Amino acid sequence: MTSEEELITRYFDAFNRHDVEEVVACFHPDAVLVGPNGKRLVGLAEVRRSYETEFALFPDAHCELRLCTGNNGRGVAESLFSGTRSRRGRIEAIGAEVIEMVDGKIKEIRDYHQPVPASGLARTRRQTPAHRAVPEAA
Q1: Of the four, 54, 56, 57, 67, which is 20 to 30 A from 90 by CA?
Q2: For residue 119, what pLDDT is reported?
Q3: Residue 86: what pLDDT?
Q4: Rounded to whole angstroms, how far apart are CA atoms 124 and 118?
Q5: What SS3 class is residue 7?
Q6: What pLDDT is stored for residue 69 in this prediction?
Q7: Nearest C-alpha neighbor of 10 from the set 90, 100, 104
Q8: How high is the pLDDT of residue 120?
Q9: What is the mean pLDDT of the chain?
Q10: Calpha distance 96→109 (Å, rounded)
Q11: In CATH, what class is 3-133?
């Protein structure tokens, strides 16, 4: 596993434990989060606030890491997000995060998750392994 893949895995593990301190520790001081809608959050304070809000809105938030690859300061992670929001019910989304890393930290995440209808979700779960790392290019 490359150092980029290790960082991605550590980030997902911290997210799934709802460990805001450990999530933020994965990020570079000049971090940028770009949401599926194009909204940009810049800096560690915004990163922290984003995850605190997400964990408060979705107390059971979970991201199943399905594919993880990375090297040379870049990585891609495909994941299946699920969480229940008060008075809105269960939300599930599948997508990828394109990740840039600097000095062993996440500098930028571009998030491409999109909602998945329940019927499509069951089919997606059966067809995709839980985690497979793509080997480094030779």
Answers
A1: 67
A2: 54
A3: 85
A4: 10
A5: helix
A6: 97
A7: 104
A8: 55
A9: 88
A10: 10
A11: alpha beta
